[in-house]
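Good morning,

Attaching, inline, the backbone tokens for the sequence recovery test we're adding to the shared suite. The designed sequence is right after.
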């Protein structure tokens, strides 16, 4: 993990109170800039976020996940495996609607259709209501992408 991401990580862990939302938004922007040179370390940090209740429950933590598809969904096999493993372990705990929507959209955009459907099938039965809505966002994204590709 590079120094900038380590500083962002430290600040994110201690962000609390009334300013927490603003702090998380600022840190997400800094993270986007800092992660450009080291996407693997950045993904490891996102997996940490998705695996840590004190982090995944923070308001606007979804902005960190958005980075995944803004970086053109470039996942190495090992990185994708880490991400899927974290989602299988923790998605059922997520109560943050924006996070679930962002994750569903990311899966719908960045995963092959068969991989996404397999993951959604695994996640859906145990998901919270907001988690299920996030999965629906991902399915809609896949349908949109499929229609768009058919038109080309």
């Amino acid at each position: 993990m590079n120094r900038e991401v380590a500083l962002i990580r430290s600040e994110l862990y201690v962000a609390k109170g009334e300013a927490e939302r603003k702090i998380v938004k600022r840190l997400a922007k800094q993270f986007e800039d800092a992660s450009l040179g080291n996407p693997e370390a950045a993904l490891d940090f996102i997996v940490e976020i998705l695996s840590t209740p004190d982090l995944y429950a923070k308001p606007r933590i979804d902005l960190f996940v958005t980075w995944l598809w803004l970086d053109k969904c470039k996942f190495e096999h090992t990185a994708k495996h880490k991400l899927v493993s974290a989602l299988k372990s923790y998605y059922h705990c997520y109560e943050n609607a924006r996070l679930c929507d962002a994750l569903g959209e990311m899966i719908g955009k960045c995963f092959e259709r068969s991989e996404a459907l397999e993951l959604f099938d695994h996640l859906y039965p145990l998901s919270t209501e907001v988690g299920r809505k996030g999965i629906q966002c991902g399915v809609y994204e896949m349908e949109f992408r499929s229609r768009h590709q058919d038109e080309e």
